[in-house]
Amino acid sequence: MITIEQLITRIEQRQPIINKADIDAEQLHQEFDSVGSLTTATHKQLSFLADPNYISSLASSQAGAVLITAEYFDQVPQTAVALVVANPYLAYAGASQLFARESLFNGIHPSAVISESAVIGEQVNIGAFCVIGDNVHIGAHSSIDAHVVVEANTAIGHNCVIKSHVVIGHDSVIGNHVRIHANASIGSEGFGFAPTRDPSTMGWERIAQLGRVVIGDHVRIGSQTCIDRGAIDDTIVGSYVVIDNLVQVGHNVRIGDGTAIAAKTGIAGSVIIGKRCIIGGDVGITGHIEIVDDVILSGMTMVTKSIKKSGSYSSGTVAMPTAEWRRAAVRFRKLGRD
Amino acid sequence: MITIEQLITRIEQRQPIINKADIDAEQLHQEFDSVGSLTTATHKQLSFLADPNYISSLASSQAGAVLITAEYFDQVPQTAVALVVANPYLAYAGASQLFARESLFNGIHPSAVISESAVIGEQVNIGAFCVIGDNVHIGAHSSIDAHVVVEANTAIGHNCVIKSHVVIGHDSVIGNHVRIHANASIGSEGFGFAPTRDPSTMGWERIAQLGRVVIGDHVRIGSQTCIDRGAIDDTIVGSYVVIDNLVQVGHNVRIGDGTAIAAKTGIAGSVIIGKRCIIGGDVGITGHIEIVDDVILSGMTMVTKSIKKSGSYSSGTVAMPTAEWRRAAVRFRKLGRD
Amino acid sequence: MITIEQLITRIEQRQPIINKADIDAEQLHQEFDSVGSLTTATHKQLSFLADPNYISSLASSQAGAVLITAEYFDQVPQTAVALVVANPYLAYAGASQLFARESLFNGIHPSAVISESAVIGEQVNIGAFCVIGDNVHIGAHSSIDAHVVVEANTAIGHNCVIKSHVVIGHDSVIGNHVRIHANASIGSEGFGFAPTRDPSTMGWERIAQLGRVVIGDHVRIGSQTCIDRGAIDDTIVGSYVVIDNLVQVGHNVRIGDGTAIAAKTGIAGSVIIGKRCIIGGDVGITGHIEIVDDVILSGMTMVTKSIKKSGSYSSGTVAMPTAEWRRAAVRFRKLGRD
């Protein structure tokens, strides 16, 4: 259970509670077990009003506390504690973390296979059947769920959360406060081959990938996402980068700080992406190009050339009735023949 | 080995065997070890004629039994037992299940780590190195292969098949007769962040995802597919939904009963999809939109707005020689500038 | 550490070292621990000049040895051993393999669960928590990392490398010198259903997938890639095929020798792909079509019909400023209505 006092402490890491002086001792100790939307929250749940379109749900809300701007403060029902902030959605984000279940186990499960040369920090959790290789370092307060494989010489920072079935290849560097979700593959071998006409290899001689993956602080990596190790130099993910599920990050890619990447996007080898970019779902970025800072790519955009100017870019065509689409697609083909 | 008698029992769960009275006792006990196409099947294999285009293969087929409509009954070779049904393909589907190898282990492997508070039904199989968390319920006759992680408080129904390396997050609800294939991630944390201008977070404050994943009965989920837990409310997959490999289902998505989703499709957060939709491979559906019942989306369609009318929709352009494509793509760009 | 002598032996498996006679005994025993680009390599690293655009970096390179064509031999610095070959990039590819870390463990980890009926060849490595099923065969010198599940009756050839968390379904056939990366799913059940109007199944009766996956020699399969087992016949991947991460290969697909497939490509069921094709990232290929030998598909191409002539094909539209794109997309829609 989380008290109003704990909520306030967490929220004030980012912004002040404007009406803190008005919250009395009894309210400070009121307890909450979860969050809810204005329409569904109970008196044991915290809610918030971030979007004024939902203002009509406020008066009848059963929530025990509501995060809200000063503008709507007087519409909060008597049954709820109002917590007034400049940015209720941001306050909710911080508060939500207090209610999350963080690790599968406490302590180090006896079934884990941990190399004697591994260095494990204080209050680290390591779940069942983990395999921690030689010379691995894991920083304090990090939680490794079940079945995680960390190959030799990899360093994981402090306060990280690595969910079950993640594989982290050898010699990787993972920063602090990094979260990696189930089944992600970090530091697999990149896709590199030298073409050859030798019929005994049918055209492909493997290039062993000898670079590393280096990930900054406060990075989030989704389930089933692949970040390949570099060929010679490293694959680099900056700090505060957030990556969704099923994303492919090829070898030698560099991603700037604060960039967000939605699910199913593919970034081919040696691409350089700037800071604070927002990349929609299922975007494809061809190899060896550069995208500057502050670029927005809408979902399914195909990027075949460097983008040198910040701004919003798109491509593709949108859903239409199939019979009409057939005609349009035929006409597109003709555009190439005229 | 499966007998004709067993085949008949299984097939008649869906439709009658029209010529059952004509099958004699000796034929009823004839045994089969597998299935085959008309051209390759042996006398120990079951085959079928579903598509009249293959009628020419029937006369010379070596199959030991053939599922067939009444129309072609008299063309079945003497060496084969004919099983006459209205829908041979559907009959074959049911029959095929008798030949499938279902679970890796029988019983509960001693290496599995199972919480004392977990409730395991009768005749459940749990394979090597599984991790079953606190208060997990697993219904009777379910089979969990190796290395499956089921986090705390999750309920799995009866007669489910969960293949190796699946991770199911805490508090999930999985119905009965559900099949989940290798390496799928159910109930990972959704991709939710509150934007902030605070330079210490470079723009992203994590929103802990406190909803669940709730999956109905008779659902099929493919390998590497991700179904994220809801942010506040739940992510909901209806009954009889079939989902292929490498599909992304974002947080708070709701999918109606009987919808089929082919590989590599991505469904962004809070999308609502109706019943009996057929969604082709690699379709992209943008967040917060709604698709009504009985919509068909062809492969690679980009859906950016709600679809309010049932029917078939498509987008994109189709493969053409690269030189011609370059000209057409340039002309498309110009369409936006004129 | 790798000596020049060892490098020469490896490189000469593919092409002669033209200046071998000029390399003295002291140089032959010079040792290297890694590779580097011309600009970053140290005297303990091997480098190469494959692309004449980088010639300006050669004179000042600190590399201990350089792979180079005869044309630029006289520009190699005195501090580096020059190794003259016709194709430096191919030589580098072979040399790089000497520096790679290949297996997580040596020997067979005591925690692995290996069926008594499994046949394990000489000098096979099997890592922690692997599960090796009944009648599995693993050829000599193969390395299986941690947490790999190999179901019953599967045969894996010699000199294979299977990384952690791979699942290989029952009855699969994997050739020699095959490399499969972390979290791949080989031989999961294909996506096959018979439509039915029976409301109790909402339209889908599962077809059990009774075919196998058969993979040739020298094949490379990336992380998170899915290769489904065949429905009746087998899914077949030829020799020297290289497949990147997050690729979907549907049931009954056949891929010809030497074909390369980049990340995130999806190949629907029963597609036949020829030899030596090069398939870019995120390509989509619809089911039941055929692509002949020597076809090149650029990234994100949508292939909806058979390709009967070798050559290069493309589709899609490319990134443009979003405001312009909106107009172009609207005009594309109108093309279908006129």
UniProtKB/TrEMBL annotation, chains A, B, C:
Keywords: Acyltransferase, Lipid A biosynthesis, Lipid biosynthesis, Lipid metabolism, Repeat, Transferase
The organism's place on the tree of life at top rank: Bacteria
Active site: 251
Annotated UDP-3-O-[3-hydroxymyristoyl] glucosamine N-acyltransferase non-repeat region domain residues: 33-98
Pathway where it operates: Bacterial outer membrane biogenesis; LPS lipid A biosynthesis
Catalytic activity: a UDP-3-O-[(3R)-3-hydroxyacyl]-alpha-D-glucosamine + a (3R)-hydroxyacyl-[ACP] = a UDP-2-N,3-O-bis[(3R)-3-hydroxyacyl]-alpha-D-glucosamine + holo-[ACP] + H(+)
Database matches in InterPro entries: Hexapep, Hexapep_transf_CS, LpxD, Trimer_LpxA-like_sf, UDP_GlcNAc_AcTrfase_non-rep
Keyword check for Zinc: no
EC numbers on record: 2.3.1.191
Pfam families, A to Z: Hexapep (PF00132), Hexapep_2 (PF14602), LpxD (PF04613)
Function (record text): Catalyzes the N-acylation of UDP-3-O-acylglucosamine using 3-hydroxyacyl-ACP as the acyl donor. Is involved in the biosynthesis of lipid A, a phosphorylated glycolipid that anchors the lipopolysaccharide to the outer membrane of the cell.
Subunit structure: Homotrimer.
Family: Belongs to the transferase hexapeptide repeat family. LpxD subfamily.
The name this protein goes by in its record: UDP-3-O-acylglucosamine N-acyltransferase
Lineage: Bacteria, Pseudomonadati, Pseudomonadota, Gammaproteobacteria, Moraxellales
